[in-house]
Amino acid sequence: MGTCRRVLIVDDDPILRVIVHSYFDNLGGFEIFQAADGRGALEIVEHRGHEIDFIMCDLNMPELDGIQFLRQLKDHVFSGAICILSGEDQLVVETAQKLAHLHSLRIVGALQKPLNVGDLDQLIPRISESDAKEKSRPFFSVSESALRNAIDKGQIEPFYQPKVEVSSRKIVGVEALARWTHPQFGMIAPGDFIPVAEQSGLIGNLTSAVLTRAMDDAKRLQACGIFIKTAINIAADLLHNLDFPDRISAEIEAAGLNPPDFVLEVTESGILQKTSDPMEVLTRLRIKGFGLSIDDFGTGHSNVDQLRNFPFSELKIDRSFIQGATKDSISKAIVDAAVLLGRELNMRLVAEGVETQSDWNFVAENGIDEIQGFLVAKPMPAMEFMRWHNEHGGSFTFSEQSAAKRDQRQAAHV
Ligand code: C2E
Ligand code: MG
Ligand code: MG
Description:
Layout: E1 6-10, H1 14-27, E2 31-35, H2 38-48, E3 54-57, H3 66-75, E4 81-86, H4 90-102, E5 106-112, H5 117-135, H6 144-152, E6 156-165, E7 171-182, E8 186-188, H7 190-200, H8 203-223, E9 229-233, H9 244-254, E10 262-267, H10 268-271, H11 277-287, E11 291-297, H12 304-308, E12 314-317, H13 319-325, H14 329-344, E13 348-351, H15 357-365, E14 370-371, H16 382-391, H17 400-410
Parallel strand pairs: 1-2, 1-3, 3-4, 4-5, 7-9, 9-10, 10-11, 11-12, 12-13, 13-14
Antiparallel strand pairs: 6-7, 6-14, 7-8
């Protein structure tokens, strides 16, 4: 089978680990890693994730369970194959597979416990098939030095995705999303380089590069009479830097802009730290007038009480729940809970990933304030956003014609 060389077995049952280990050992040509729970597995993924070809993962484990581990694999942009190995009932296993798909993970199967070795035999060709598909995708492995060079040379710039107020249909903001235009490999999406930036300590430089360009673009927009808020993604690491509030506000004021022109988006994992630093940093940012948004809401491990401790002004519901809400009751329940929490804490509610008219109808019926998604537009370069904004006269109207025009123009963008 050749292509699958490093396998990670994650299961709290030592006997099962022995069985699977000896299976791969007998096949030959495998380096085998093992972990007794998601937390141990995560340590391996953090250090050697890019080298692991295949993970076999239990669902019910102490510490970090299989579902939490899948979420972490998404955050680490794990690109290997994954198989679930579980004694849970079929519905749980199917839901776990669906979740993995929503996380864009490469799930190749689910095996029921007690394990039958014949099932493993059937799995091997599926892994090879999935690996072959993955390899046929254009691939560029991002190194720290290539990324540093790209930041220094200004190859990373923000693309802008509009945010639209549901009630008025006005374009009220944009999210700045980093894009790397590589001279050789073309457009590289953030999922391929943000994790490298975070792991290598380059995330501060990258955020500054995005912010500097976003400030220039915001000034250009203001000069044309367009006053909208720019959202910037802030990685968790920066929330430990106690100078961050002073540095960012000084930079923004030096550019002739004001903190309220910006919304800083942080994910739940960014605030779930043992130290009080993120709380201090976020509170000072809020006092300085920045909007603060909790990004990808619903996907982290924070509980509602933890969120109450932070001065967020906006809650952004993750796109997996928005897209799932019209189809399944769990996603709908998560959206309902987010809306309740947002209302109670006086936060503006934003829905990500609105792709269809029925998604739009759903958010409008559920009292969400703003939306962002492919229905309106994909992220685009600054100049194009300016043209787009003017063409739309500052608000979004949906028609079949405009959808066709949008799709044509956006076919070129990530
Ligand atoms: P995010 O902050 O949650 O950004 C939203 C992502 O959803 C963007 O992906 C956007 O293109 C995508 N999206 C928006 N509408 C739709 C839709 O209708 N359907 C679908 N399928 N997707 C939609 P993108 O640009 O690939 O960014 C991915 C993530 O990378 C961002 O998620 C953010 O976490 C991170 N990121 C991007 N730029 C930066 C940055 O400058 N700094 C940091 N720290 N992270 C960044
Ligand atoms: Mg964001
Ligand atoms: Mg998000």
